[in-house]
Amino acid sequence: MLIIDNYHFKDDCRTPNNPSLPLLVYKQALDSHHTPEACSELFQSNEWHGVWVNGVYPYHHFHTTAHEVLGVVGGEGSILMGGENGKTLEVQKGDVLIIPAGVGHKKVLASPDFQVVGAYPSGQSADLMKTGEQHHSKAAANIQQVKLPRTDPIYGKKGPMFDHWK
């Protein structure tokens, strides 16, 4: 049974976060044998593109032009979500984070083998905004314009993301 955690973060005047969409964490949505290649293929088959494999930046950042998915394919880590006063989440291999446009994120700690696969919904490409280094009202306005994805990055057109993102 899939466990989905969701978190809402308020605008803290440095990180806009998302006023209507929660961060979703699908706990252990990827099986233990998911390689970076298999995760990349899964995201692409569900119309999430611009796939990359790496870690998470060790500074607060967010995207105003795209939603983002992170599939943890190696190790474990602590990620601070929602800006400086947000919530630190412990993630491990198999977890998937679906991050709405505007929600800040930063790696706090990670095991040496920590690795994620990231992607963005079809038709969206991510900018990179560092917390406190943007025109806040423009960033918040851009976030409001980002359309909902057509598909859930793991489960496709009828995925549980749509129960939380309306």
From TrEMBL:
PANTHER family: BLR7373 PROTEIN, CUPIN TYPE-1 DOMAIN-CONTAINING PROTEIN. Gene3D superfamilies: Jelly Rolls (2.60.120.10). CDD domains: cupin_YjlB-like. This is Cupin domain-containing protein. It comes from Falsibacillus albus. Residues 61-108 form the Cupin type-1 domain. InterPro entries: Cupin_1, RmlC-like_jellyroll, RmlC_Cupin_sf, UCP019307_cupin, YjiB-like.
